[in-house]
Design a protein that fits this description.
Layout: H1 15-41, E1 46-50, E2 56-60, H2 66-82, H3 98-127, H4 135-157
Antiparallel strand pairs: 1-2
Helix pairs in contact: 1-2, 1-3, 2-3, 3-4
Length: 159
């Protein structure tokens, strides 16, 4: 069965979009300043992976944490770009009305901001606590899922 073509909607710059983009930029600068500060204060070798019981089973340089931090930041910036191309937004709800697309765009922009929280939680989890706990990362991921679920419900209800 062939999937329906998504309708291409043209999105122009709005005040809301600009606010999200400026907020992302400011938050990214703050997050990266904190990430670099945490990495500069870290010991030469840190635990980089943990087993199911929370015991470290791999060690490495703290600067290796830059890779996932860069990936999440770039993904967040990519979401801000995708917000201008809503036909690329993959929602588990069929979107038909302009209001549904507006909500999908807003959820994409909020997801970009929450990815910055994930960026901060990665080194924060491993470097700020004596015994690393996944709660910061799980909290950031949980927030992203909560936003997605909330907006999926709202999009589904809008006609």
């Amino acid at each position: 069965m062939k999937q329906k073509e998504k309708q291409k909607i043209e999105v122009h710059r709005t005040t809301e979009g600009t606010i999200f983009e400026v907020a992302f930029l400011i938050l990214a600068v703050i997050v990266w300043a904190l990430v670099i500060w945490m990495l500069s204060k870290a010991p030469d070798v840190i635990a980089t992976h943990f087993d199911a019981h929370g015991r470290p089973n791999s060690y490495g340089s703290p600067w290796g944490l830059l890779v996932p931090c860069v990936i999440t930041t770039v993904a967040g910036a990519g979401l801000l770009v995708v917000a201008y191309h809503p036909h690329l937004i993959n929602m588990p709800v069929e979107m038909k009305t302009p209001r549904q697309y507006e909500l999908a765009i807003r959820s994409t922009r909020i997801a970009a901001l929450t990815l910055l929280l994930l960026t901060l939680s990665i080194p924060g989890t491993l470097l700020l606590f004596e015994s690393p706990s996944p709660w910061l990362i799980l909290g950031a991921v949980g927030l992203m899922l909560a936003v997605l679920i909330y907006y999926c419900i709202r999009i589904r209800r809008v006609k």
